[in-house]
Amino acid sequence: MARRLLLEFEKPLVDLEEQIDQIRQLARDSEVDVNQQLQQLETLAARRREEIFGSLTPAQKIQVARHPQRPSCLDFVQLLSEEWIELHGDRRGSDDKALVAGLGRLGSRPVLFLGHQKGRDTKENVARNFGMASPGGYRKALRLMQHADRFGLPIIAFIDTPGAYAGRQAEELGQGEAIAVNLRDMFALSVPVIATVIGEGGSGGALGIGVADRLLMFEHSVYTVASPEACASILWRDAAKASEAAEALRITSRDLLQLGVVDRVIDEPSGGNHWAPVKAADVLRQALEETLQELLSLDSETLRRQRYEKYRRIGHLLEDGGG
Amino acid sequence: MGRFLPDAVSLLDWFADRRKSAPAVRPIQDTEEGDGLWSKCPTCSQVVYRKDLLANASVCAGCGHHHRIDSQERLRLILDPGSFVPMDEHLAPGDPLAFRDRRAYSDRLRDSQRQTGLRDAVVCGQGRIDGLPLAIGVMEFRFMGGSMGSVVGEKLTRLIEAATASGWPVLIVCASGGARMQEGMLSLMQMAKISAALERHRQARLLYLPLLTHPTTGGVTASFAMLGDLILAEPKALIGFAGRRVIEQTLREKLPDDFQTAEYLLDHGFVDVIVPRPKLRETLASLLRLHGVQPQPEAVATP
Which residues of A touch B272 (CB under 8 A)? Predict the structure, then answer.
């Protein structure tokens, strides 16, 4: 594996890791028994990691959510499903690589997986457009969701995008219309839909594949109405106030659980998903299987009605007219 | 000479750029000049009697510029006099995130409420056009830029649900900068909520017409503005998902002057018809009749 990219607040952990490495080296070179010392340091490192990741600020969580080594949609698909056939194209002249979809299995059950796909490095990010989908991506997603609907395949969506692509061609091809139609038509689906925010959920571009019976969210993921950078430059008139905006917007999994937007928070391995992707996938699999089991016990009419009611309830208002 | 040429060309470019930066279509200004008796058109500078302007649906007789009108004036222009029965007027915004940027959200709300006399950025109700019943929602841009928070979402959803239950067509006059950031993710989710209600309205084979007015952008464009069975727009209205400046920053390319105007969207297939405001009422009446909407007896059923 390539050297891990370190976030600013992870630096205290590096010193400890280096000490541990040095002692290991020492033990290899000499016959000194260092087991006790090693154990102490490793416990300390684990505890520091817990502490740091247990009290991340919203702005720090954004860094974790955007971490280039955080497991992506296709990483999770590979870890969750042995079978995987990626399917392409919106049948309107494009295949968007920022939004991928295909058939696989969750446990033994055939499902449709889909999600935003970022790149690992600059080259792949250019090909994937940094996970910012175009109208063709949303139309491909809807085409395959309706396909899944016809064949009774549950839909498992992974959200991980800074937002829908803001470009001239995207506007000309109807970015707004493509997302809007998805929002409406996902309410007509008769199969269970589970969406999980695995990284960052950026505004309408995330919601465009995110209308679901259950919305799950990884512990350190974020989901925003507008990027804190944009919010800061509009409301604070100062893009440098992004971390204040991140705080004010209530974008963390716990906040959104409390606001009734998210149904379940999935715990991450200590240090975040990028420290232990396989473990993260195990926890994800369990959450998805439990949720799917629950949804499969409902008939399609109940499923659609409950999906409607779930969104119908979201919002905060004063019935009596307030002040 | 060989060294000179590029400089000369770039100087020409500089002049060309300067010309381009003063676009032929001048941006529609939010504040309209003049007070009381007279009004000056922000586009062609023609000065007219305010009375004459109002008589022409607030459209400049000189250049056709559509002045911004408020929700009350919009209702007056569209509906049969006295036919409007408001719905859910009592719904008011809370401050679920206790949001504060340079100012507190609650202060911004109070200002907008005082300025508009409304509790939030949309007016909803039932009314008639030429005796034809419909459910109508009009967004109020003067209220925090027509931004969509929980109240806008809830009122439009209730409006659409009432229309579905009563078999009415729905007209929503859009004017919005998008989702209201001060209510965070609750605002974003209103896009899904309204779209869900529209899905049921559509299943009932009822007609939904959004009218896109200046400006219709962001989360409103990415939900109910683009979900019309037929989509109407006002001349020159700015309609788009992403902001022009954001796109220019990503592309480092100059966009056409008419980019994201109603006319541009019509050319690209995303608007069915552009309706000048003086023709709005009769166009809507025609469309309702062509879709088999039947006149309703005078006595209005209270919703």
Answer: none
- Kindly report the nearest CA distance between residue B37 and chain A, in angstroms: 35
Model confidence at B6: pLDDT above 50: no
The pLDDT, as a whole number, for residue A30 is: 77
Cβ <8 Å between A308 and B240: no
**Which of A168, A185, A188 is closest, CB to CB, to B247?**
A168
Touching A: B residues 12-71, CB under 8 Å? none
Residues A207-249 pLDDT 10s: 999 999 999 999 999 999 999 999 999 999 998 999 999 999 9
CA dihedral for A175, A179, A185, A186, sign (positive or negative): positive
pTM of this structure? 0.91
Q: Could you tell me if A204 and A174 are in contact, meaning their C-beta atoms sit under 8 angstroms apart?
A: no
Residue A204 has its nearest CB partner, among B151, B202, B219, at B219
Cα–Cα distance, B221 to B227 (Å, whole number): 9
CA B119 to chain A, closest CA, distance in angstroms equals 8
ipTM for the predicted complex comes to 0.94
Angle of CA points A137, A81, A143, to nearest 5°: 25
Six token digits for residue B288: 């309702």
Closest CA to B237 of B206, B200, B280, B197: B280
Chain A contact for B245, CB < 8 A? no
Cβ of A207 within 8 Å of Cβ of B91? The answer is no
Q: Inter-chain contact B270–A174, Cβ cutoff 8 Å?
A: yes
SS3 state of residue B118: coil
Inter-chain touch B227–A237, beta carbons under 8 Å: no
Beta carbon pairs, A and B, within 8 Å: 195
H-run or E-run covering B171: strand B170-176
Spatial distance between the Cα atoms of A230 and A234, rounded to a whole number of angstroms = 6
Q: How distant, in Å, are the alpha carbons of A52, A183, B13, B254 from that of B6?
A: 57, 51, 10, 21
pLDDT at position B264: 97
- pLDDT digit string, tens, across residues B20-66: 444 444 434 444 444 578 888 999 999 989 999 999 999 999 899 99
**Which residues of chain A make contact with B162, given a CB cutoff of 8 A?**
none
Domains of chain B, earliest start first: 1-67 (no CATH), 69-290 (3.90.226.10)
Q: In this structure, are residues B224 and B174 in contact, taking their beta carbons and an 8 Å threshold? A: yes
Which pLDDT belongs to residue B302?
A: 54
